[in-house]
């Protein structure tokens, strides 16, 4: 399980100048801080890596995002959207191979993952681009890293997949952070989880606002199939208040046992378990025994040390 972030030199103090040089080298290797200069500063840095901007970069905030991606803005805004920077670049030696670069910056890494997860589907092709894994096709490449969601698109017929992947690698080297998924999603990584199906929703889970924010994932195993959900203590709030909210919103919501609840959704029975402030469930056409078998796997992951 990957995690996002004493003294490494015990017993002696180092010269101030040497410490400063270490800090500078570390910042260059770990990624460039973009807080002060903004994402538009990435384009001159890309130019030093043989990617020339064909026009000045444009920047959009929450108030005018619709001007650039009308019809899509409502997908990004709930995820702590802060800024979109857009530009067209081309690689050295291929003057006609224009590529459109879109940099979405969000409030948290989880928000950036959430937007990325809305664009990702099982069985999509994946490519390594530096510190991140991207979903890729001949004309598109998407990934998230730290607080950024990145979309790269071929903007001319001569721009190919190799150009998109090359730009993705160059950009990943400049962005801070990693593409580690939110640590709580480890609880969903059970036998039967459909790869690439974990999605973070801000507005509705299983179609119900009362369950959001939270995670959904596809499950298929042991002759059953359904949708897993996971809601953290921070997102749910006090358990009793959370369950009271569900009783007003989910049809037939009722307690089955101390920590097990059931609701009757149009997609099938929804089984919900609560442990240590976490709420996790499975929805689909499965019996109670089958549902409890699935939920026990999630419970084991939640209780595993580390």
Largest sheet: 8 strands, antiparallel
Structural class: alpha+beta
Structural domains: how many: 2
Helical fraction equals 25-40%
Task: Determine and state the CATH class of the largest domain.
Answer: Alpha Beta
Q: What is the annotated CATH architecture of the largest domain?
A: 3-Layer(aba) Sandwich
Strand segment count? 15
Question: What name is given to the CATH topology of the largest domain?
Answer: Protein Transport Mog1p, Chain A
Multimeric status of the protein: single chain
Overall pLDDT metric: 89
Strand content: 25-35%
Provide an overview of this structure.
By secondary structure, this protein is an alpha+beta fold. The protein folds into two domains: 32-174, Protein Transport Mog1p, Chain A, CATH 3.40.1000; 183-303, Protein Transport Mog1p, Chain A (3-Layer(aba) Sandwich), CATH 3.40.1000. The protein is built from eight helices and 15 strands. It has helices at residues 16-30, 42-47, 73-76, 109-119, 161-174, 233-236, 239-249, 288-303, and strands at 51-53, 58-60, 81-91, 99-106, 126-129, 132-136, 140-145, 148-154, 199-201, 214-221, 224-231, 254-255, 260-265, 268-275, 278-284.
